[in-house]
Amino acid sequence: MGLRIAMEMKMDIAALQAFLVRDFPQAAGDFEFVAVAPPFVTMALIASDKHLRPGGTVSGPSMFGLADVCAYFCILAALGPVALAVTTNCSIDFMRKPLAGRLLCRMELLKLGRALAVCEGRIFSDAAPDKIVARASLTYSIPPNS
Amino acid sequence: MGLRIAMEMKMDIAALQAFLVRDFPQAAGDFEFVAVAPPFVTMALIASDKHLRPGGTVSGPSMFGLADVCAYFCILAALGPVALAVTTNCSIDFMRKPLAGRLLCRMELLKLGRALAVCEGRIFSDAAPDKIVARASLTYSIPPNS
Amino acid sequence: MGLRIAMEMKMDIAALQAFLVRDFPQAAGDFEFVAVAPPFVTMALIASDKHLRPGGTVSGPSMFGLADVCAYFCILAALGPVALAVTTNCSIDFMRKPLAGRLLCRMELLKLGRALAVCEGRIFSDAAPDKIVARASLTYSIPPNS
Amino acid sequence: MGLRIAMEMKMDIAALQAFLVRDFPQAAGDFEFVAVAPPFVTMALIASDKHLRPGGTVSGPSMFGLADVCAYFCILAALGPVALAVTTNCSIDFMRKPLAGRLLCRMELLKLGRALAVCEGRIFSDAAPDKIVARASLTYSIPPNS
């Protein structure tokens, strides 16, 4: 899409990790940061039994959760440590069953407006990055005075 | 939307409950059937710590999971006990924070085609059914020879 | 979904019609108001050659346009004659081919917040109101100081 | 997303142009092919008065139409000249007002399955390719025996 202009990074992985523990206390152990380079953030799902469906495939809600968390930190990485942004919309397409092993989500911040932020990303297995498992777009509402 | 034509009910609550345990073994205890009357199915989320965010509000992935399960059983109630249908798309809007207490999802089957089924539903707190917490539309792919 | 609380109507059909001509000058002749009773607005598409695909079926963009206009006036009917709201998201599912004749959209305002409004509606042929042709959900951004 | 595996091109621009005229007779003059290299197809909207809103900005339905046509030809370029595929779902986010001048859509085919194809793309002004105007994801149903 032509030149991609790098955004300033307002929070690094260590700072984001502290927010992951603070804002998602029950789920913090399920995720890890792989790469943070605004407008992109890549995170991994550390899948355990609770994330799986019969046959060993990662469940839809687990993939939704991965996309949602990854979008949240995509916004924080560019915006800085602000009051809580909240998801207002998500559209997700499930396309293939993930392979066994680590599941990654690479999310891109497409718009960081005054009131809304829009992200778009893809979920794929670490072992087959060119086979997209799911795609998702998410809108977050940014609280005033952030 | 004019006359709503009742669909035949192919599975009752007891039959659907057996499939809930079979197809969602890790999550079966999180949900209960409230009403089954095709094209409508209403289910409740039995929220526990794992479903909550800081402040005690139900998380987005938990609401996604409720909508997804409810759509699945909306299809099975009308189609009968078939080979696994899989979610291909979900669009969900989060509009208000849920109140404390039971969270319900009332899902409607809008189309049951040869290859695709489309559902649309709303999530609301038992204590305030006119304040919609979230809305979701989901598409399921129906395997051939179902 | 339980009791539906009627919203106050801030603009009637005559007032909305004046805004249709003002805000959609090229398309005003394509639409007519059928019923306005907040949170519901029903509009019809007056289909002409430009709206049709081979075979005489109404095109996807024409149905998108009908849903978009209907949501816009759903918001204005409840909010009053304000500065321009703009569409930020639409998710639309096309389920059946419309029949010949008038195509209607019945839209419901689900949330009218400070910054965002969310609508959900269904498109159907006048001749078969129980066969849903398409469903759509739309988010509008409401400008500050509206 | 790692290596992008090139798809075989089943139809070139001349062949696609013939289908544009056949399948979209009323709208064929509104669009032109810019680049065809499966899984990518880029098309331009030749905006005229009918595509504009007050202020000279391209309307939402016109951008929806551009995304929809571009996805259709993204599928045909990879699949070949088959029986008509039909749009079943579209999720579109409008993020910025387009600049004056040519509006482009670059669409990518993410999945070409037996029954469904999924595309994702971005709309941007020719003069500012790094400022995304809109993003869209679309699902098409592929008829059996294609």
TrEMBL record, chains A, B, C, D:
Domain of life: Bacteria
Domain Thioesterase: 55-126
Pfam annotation, one family: 4HBT
A GO molecular-function descriptor: thiolester hydrolase activity
Annotated keywords: Membrane, Transmembrane, Transmembrane helix
Record-linked InterPro entries: HotDog_dom_sf, Thioestr_dom
Entry keyword annotation includes Transmembrane helix: yes
Residues passing through the membrane, by range: 63-87
Name recorded for this polypeptide: Putative thioesterase
Originating organism: Octadecabacter antarcticus 307
Biological classification of the source: Bacteria, Pseudomonadati, Pseudomonadota, Alphaproteobacteria, Rhodobacterales
